[in-house]
């Protein structure tokens, strides 16, 4: 199979779909790998590193999209990239379609086979292709929140860990999954006063055992969220419903109960955000203020630590890429029902039920696509 990897063009996105090591693995399996020139510079991988791995360097993205049978990316294709996709071409990347009707419509019009990292499931449960980026984003959310809390950046002027004689900042983490757990780990490590909210009693029990007295846990309901948000210096939105749009758990009305200069970090922004007042921002302009509350909602947070993120991502995406290349997408998805969960669009149809429900579109089962 001919596999193409274009340079990412989203604002301040420095990751790349394939590392030189991943390209080498694909070439070793007998496949042809096309890499857009300079695609790997954001992770410190020049064109020569890809040539040494057996890949071919291509001068521009249109050539990649025109020649590749499978396109491997990191972020969802931007409008100019979607215009280059074609019927039957495989697109293997993060898509996050539920909050993005324009992207969904254009992918359907292209007839592309869209396999989304974020809905591929694992044999032991969970979302293994989303997990490493959730780990990165969870950890980064505390760094970003701590910076936004600084007075020069519009925050309250509060140090997360405090100092002797001065209380630490209060941090509320809404969602106890991978993002929330990693955010809480970082916040606890910095000495903050941390409360984690979740709806699953087993998750709360697991978090309680892990953190012991270093973090508090509370059941996530409207009253408890409102109380924790009102008291918090920093709120981390870490809620995920696989494939679906994130629920708005923090309303605009709640902002009036918060202290001026408090910070909201919405890690769920890729799925539409879990704060009512959220809208996606970029690394060049990461924050904005609503009702005196600083909002951070960068949609590609892990892109800022591109080398760490790219290698962590390739560790989990490469085995499936190899399987798709070796067997074809139908063969690979037929052999692995967990990978089949990643099929979001096919031949003009939506094959992910949460996406179809979120956007009011007809749903076609994956089995129909594979038949």
Give me the secondary-structure topology:
Elements: E1 2-5, H1 20-28, E2 32-36, H2 47-52, E3 56-58, H3 61-67, E4 70-72, H4 79-82, E5 90-93, H5 101-110, E6 113-116, H6 131-148, E7 170-174, H7 178-189, E8 193-198, H8 201-211, E9 215-219, H9 222-231, E10 234-237, H10 252-255, E11 263-266, E12 287-290, E13 293-296, H11 306-335, H12 337-340, E14 343-346, E15 349-350, H13 353-359, H14 366-370
Parallel strand pairs: 1-2, 1-4, 2-3, 4-5, 5-6, 7-8, 7-10, 8-9, 10-11, 11-13
Antiparallel strand pairs: 6-14, 12-13, 14-15
Shape: globular
Percentage of residues assigned to helices: 25-40%
Number of helices: 14
The name of the CATH architecture of the largest domain is 3-Layer(aba) Sandwich
What name is given to the CATH topology of the largest domain? Rossmann fold
What is the CATH superfamily label of the largest domain? NAD(P)-binding Rossmann-like Domain
User: What is the quaternary state of this protein?
Assistant: single chain
How would a textbook summarize the main sheet? Answer: 8 strands, mixed
**CATH uppermost class of the largest domain:** Alpha Beta
Radius of gyration: 21 Å
Distance between the termini: 22 Å
Task: Describe the structure in your own words.
The chain is an alpha/beta fold and 371 residues long. The chain has 14 helices and 15 strands. The protein has helices at residues 20-28, 47-52, 61-67, 79-82, 101-110, 131-148, 178-189, 201-211, 222-231, 252-255, 306-335, 337-340, 353-359, 366-370, and strands at residues 2-5, 32-36, 56-58, 70-72, 90-93, 113-116, 170-174, 193-198, 215-219, 234-237, 263-266, 287-290, 293-296, 343-346, 349-350. The strands form two sheets. The protein has an eight-stranded mixed beta sheet with strand order 3-2-1-4-5-6-14-15, with helices on both faces. Strands 9-8-7-10-11-13-12 form a seven-stranded mixed beta sheet, sandwiched between helices. Helix 6 crosses helix 7 (178-189). It is globular and about 65 Å long. The model has no long low-confidence stretch (mean pLDDT 97).
